Amino acid sequence: MIGFLRGRLAAKQPPQLLIDVGGVGYEVEAPMSTFYGLPAVGAEVSLFTHLVVREDAHILFAFGTERERRLFRELLKVSNVGPKLALALLSGMSVDAFMLCVEAEDADTLVRIPGVGRKTAERLIIEMRDRIKNLGAGSGMAPMPGRPAESSSGGAQAEAYSALIALGYKPAEVTRLLRAVDASAQTTEEIIRGALQAAATG
Predict the structure, then answer these.
(1) What is the 3-state secondary structure (H, E, C) of the chain?
(2) Does domain 66-134 have CATH number 2.40.30.10?
(3) Which numeric CATH code is attached to 4-63?
(4) Which among 1, 112, 125, 159 is least surrounded, fewest beta carbons within 10 Å?
């Protein structure tokens, strides 16, 4: 199994990344929590990975910290939670915020994540109650620091729209969330962060 990648960030279009490792391009999917810490395209990056093998595809998921990957793996053990939903959960809230939701039995916050219904939220709270103890404070290797790549507002809006659709939000909901984003947000990552914050507050 591939557990770690270090190489040049060749392309990023949430939720997909392309990492050039010694001339081999690895296509990976990453949560927005990882995207927020990525350097500009062309810089070196280090990411933890998890390989999901399906009958029709092998999909590599990447994470900025070991703690994120650990939560992703624990989520996959929950009934009816697949990689897409686990990625949406990690994109919608931090590891600490998720732990607080489980500890406080806060299903209302969890159901704001696309794909998480009331029954799934309650199942997450029950099944993750003991597993979150394994997450701890954790110290993982973060991606190399760097300045976010600049992007025109129009292009960034379009990329943010596509990313939110990929995370499971419906088109009408994405349009509403993007309208709620502060006008000062310029990069794709800033726009998505603002939209996800708007989703979290209802």
Answers:
(1) CCCEEEEEEEEEECCEEEEEECCEEEEEECCHHHHCCCCCCCCEEEEEEEEEECCCCEEEEEECCHHHHHHHHHHHCCCCCCHHHHHHHHHHCCHHHHHHHHHCCCHHHHCCCCCCCHHHHHHHHHHHCCHHHHCCCCCCCCCCCCCCCCCCHHHHHHHHHHHHHHCCCCHHHHHHHHHCCCCCCCCHHHHHHHHHHHHHCC
(2) no
(3) 2.40.50.140
(4) 1
